[in-house]
Amino acid sequence: MPEKPSLLKRLEFIDRRWLFLALAGSIVLPLLFPIPLPLYVSPMVQDLYDAVEALPEGAIVLLSADYDPSGKPELEPFHVALTHHLFRKNLRVVIVSLWPAAPPLTEIVMDRVGVETTYGKVYGVDYVNLGFKEGRQIVMKSMGSSIRNTFPTDRQGTLVTDLPLMEEVDSYDDVAMLINISAGSPGVKEYVQVVQSRWAVPMVGACTAVSGPDYVPYYKAVPQQLLGLSAGMKGAAEYEKLVGRPGEAMSGMAAQSASHLLLIAFIVFGNVMLYLSRRKGGA
Amino acid sequence: MDVQVWISYALTLFILSFLYKDNPLYKLAEHLFVGISAGYYIALAYQETIRPNLWEAVVTDGHYWRIGAFLLSILMFTRYAPKVAWLSRWPLAFVVGMYAGINVIAFGSGDLIIQLQSTMLDFLHGGMGAISNLLLIVGLASSLLYFYFSREHTGALGVVSRIGVWFLMVSFGASFGYTVMSRISLAIGRTRDLMLHPLVTAALIVAVTVGLFVWSRRGGGADQEIT
Amino acid sequence: MIGDFFIPHAAFSRVVQEIQQWGLIVVSFTYLLGVVNILQVHSAKVQRRSPEAPYSIVLVVSLLGMACLGIFHDHKSADSPFIWLYNTVYDPLSATMFALLAFFITSAAYRAFRARSTEAVLLLSAAILVMLGQVPVGAAIWGPDSFLGGFPGVKDWIMDVPNLAGKRAVLMGAALGAISTGLRIILGLERAHLGGGN
Question: At what angle do helices A248-282 and C91-111 cross, to 10 degrees?
Fold first, then answer.
């Protein structure tokens, strides 16, 4: 009769579906029973907030929303908090997208924030949504030549020449800041390379956590290529805190904490098993 | 209850059913995803780029030379006619050339020069900050030397490139930590959506589970190894 | 494109602007090429009556249906069928596809992340410190007001010093590679993108 494997051995070769269930538990339980935890604001996000805060009232901001539903949980909360911030400060906003799936998401955010109902902003005067344009870096470069030529119409098909705000904007020289919310390529990296480095337009960015560490060199560059950077849901939570609008990102932090602890426990357990089996093997 | 909620929740659970094993519900959702997204992309490319920048530019604004861009684009499809397939290289060469031109400048001025310039740091004054600056300079120089493959990594170069590997490993570790965070955030987002209508979710979980159970009992997925 | 960087002349800029417009249009048509390829592959599956044929039919019908709705009907109004399908089908499927990765990364953490060498120890230690420093529970265990700034402080230092050194090296190396590849393409030394290398 074969020897029954030890509990540790059985745990080591556990069916992965139990691991999936553990992760699901670590997400669902904190969402059901939230625990208030202190939220530390990192310098990168604080700098982002300060850069937007320092813009004079009425300044024009170019917002490039470049994400799709797969990046929504990380970027939409930031997009919402930022939209509150921009319109609360009475900045004027030109919105473009280099990702085809982004325009409907932008419309949902504008609706949720209540740009027209809560802040009383007028389309065409205080903000415009130029929609999507294919071509990635070519679009970025083309906007440097002429935004009006690159986007002859807005998302609704209205000629940009009929939009009062667009009379004041035709290139990067006409905007006080470029804000990029990006879930990958084309996004922050390409905007820094093609636009910021050439037109020296002040730029801040929000990206998924995956890209966060890759963009740190742009934030730490001298002179700074990115004045501030928000990475992932955590960055969005910090921004929500700074703007004073706690939302989905802040409420997700308990689940994020529990899942991280679970994963760290898994990594530690795996390595303890490795250590034990090596000791056994060596003995 | 809103039919939109039922459909979107069902599709979400079809995808999540892959965690049990590959199955027909997942395959259905996967193919639907590819179809809908490709259809969406092509509609957006037409409506928000081709129509305003080509069609209306020619018909309304009289930019007739832009017909050239259309003809160049059409050449891409000559690949389906073997005799003239070579013509499909022209639009490709045009686009690749444009990106190459943009990238040479973008990577040069955007990445290379400014990053090098940003590493010219003071490491003699400023206490802990100076130590960090020194570590940064050593880390960058040794990591760059690790990528120098024209000489064998032995002797002094071997030692330095080993230090470079250590810095690279810490940076990959940071990326890994952030990647974990990213993926978990996405799972949190989906879970939160499913929790908005818990009864629909519960009903659909039961339905999908029963479906998978029946499929499994009929021998579906018996060839898949689960560990 | 390179000339435009060095020649700030209005006439030259106008030419470049038009070339850029051509670029946008040609790139947009590549979508159509991609769709033709997808349709070819899946119609072949249907014709062969492969076991995957029903799924291919779903794919082709949904692709053509979505494209027709967007092109011949309304592609932007919140109450249009196109946006309804975007919200009901595309949005949840796209989001869930990527959410799946969280589960596989958990499985990998349990089975694969083993510290078998100095390099692996460094990688895993940095990963764990960053994971703790990034979430509020890390700050609750070892707060930013404590020695070294607690987990958040250590995480910020890792990001700003060793991570920055590594990432900057990769960035500079990739930049050199991209510049040389770009120049090789422009000079005609690199022709792989045209197929066949001849």
Answer: 30
Distance, first Cα to last Cα, chain C: 25
Mutation target for B interface from C7, C39, C59, C118: give the one with most B CBs within 10 A: C59
Give every strand in the sheet of A92-97, ordered side by side: A127-132, A92-97, A60-66, A177-182, A203-207, A229-231
How far is B8 from B23, CA to CA, in rounded Å?
A: 18
Residue B67 tokens read as: 């017909």
In chain A, which residues have their Cβ closer than 8 Å to the Cβ of B187? 23, 27, 259
Residue the block writes with tokens 């090789």: C184
Residue whose pair of structure tokens reads 């699901």 in the numeric block? A24
**Does residue A275 share a domain with residue A155?**
no
CB contact under 8 A, A137 and B48: no
* Contacts of residue A278, Cβ cutoff 8 Å, sequence gap at least 6: none
**A79 in the same domain as A102:** yes
Please indicate, yes or no, whether residues A128 and A173 belong to a single structural domain of this protein: yes
The full DSSP string for A120-154 is: ---BTTTEEEEEE-S-THHHHHHHHH-HHHH-SB-
Put simply, the answer to whether C21 touches B53 (Cβ < 8 Å) is yes
Instruction: Tell me whether A141 touches chain C (CB under 8 Å).
Output: yes
Kindly report the nearest CA distance between residue B105 and chain A, in angstroms. Answer: 8
A80 shares its domain with A190: yes
B213 touching A (Cβ < 8 Å): no
Beta carbons of B35 and C62 less than 8 angstroms apart: yes
**What gap in Å lies between CA C157 and CA A261, rounded to an integer?**
21
ipTM: 0.92
Please list the rounded mean pLDDT of every run of 10 residues in chain A (283 residues): 71 87 96 90 97 98 97 97 98 98 96 96 97 96 95 95 96 97 96 95 97 96 96 97 96 96 94 85 59
Structure token pair of residue A82: 């930022």
Closest CB to A232: pick one of B48, B107, B181.
B181
Identify whether A38 is part of a domain.
Answer: no
DSSP characters over C52-102? THHHHHHHHHHHHHHHHHHHHS-SS-TTSHHHHHIIIIIHHHHHHHHHHHH
**Chain A residues lying within 8 Å of B173, measured CB to CB:** none
Q: Mind telling me how many Å the CA of B151 is from chain C's nearest CA?
A: 17
The CA distance from B70 to the nearest CA of chain C, in Å, is 7
- The answer to whether C182 contacts B107, with C-beta atoms less than 8 Å apart, is yes
Q: How far apart are CA C125 and CA B172, in angstroms?
A: 11
Q: What is the pTM of this model?
A: 0.94
Q: Write out the residue range of the structural domain in which residue A275 sits.
A: 7-33+253-282
Give the residue from B128, B90, C31, B224 showing the smallest Cα distance to A16: B224
Residues C111-159: tens digit of each pLDDT: 888 888 999 999 999 999 999 999 999 999 998 888 888 999 999 999 9
Structurally, chain A folds into a number of domains equal to: 2
- Does A220 sit within 8 Å of C164, measured CB to CB? yes
For residue B155, give how far its alpha carbon lies from the nearest alpha carbon of chain A (Å): 31
Q: From A44, A245, B194, select the one nearest C152 (Cα to Cα).
A: A44
> Does residue A82 sit within a domain?
yes
Q: Which pLDDT score, from 0 to 100, does residue C198 have?
A: 41
Residues in chain C: 198
Residue A65 near residue A79 (C-beta atoms within 8 A): yes
C55/B177 Cβ within 8 A:
no
3-state SS assignment for residue A36: coil
pLDDT in tens, B36-78: 999 999 999 999 999 999 999 999 989 999 999 999 999 999 9
